[in-house]
Amino acid sequence: MTEDHALWEAIGNLHRTRRDLIAQLAHVVREEGEHACSFCHAEPPDVTVLVGPGVAICDRCVELCREILSLGAQGRR
Ligand SMILES: [Zn+2]
């Protein structure tokens, strides 16, 4: 196997893992959609809440985290 093949296979595995994770989270959202966000306490149907073990986060907080992380990434440049 060439290096390129190994790289593409690794990227393929990464996408599969990501898809599996998204499918699992979507499952959790459907089953436990009544949970409030652990960070801002918003509840469905105002927000979509992802529920993990012992913690939940809503789509608004995810978006806020994305902005914060992207600011952090810019600061490191
Ligand atoms: Zn929230």
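^ zinc ion complex. The mean pLDDT is 80. The pocket of zinc ion is lined by residues 37, 39-40, 42, 57-58, 60-61 (CB under 6 Å).
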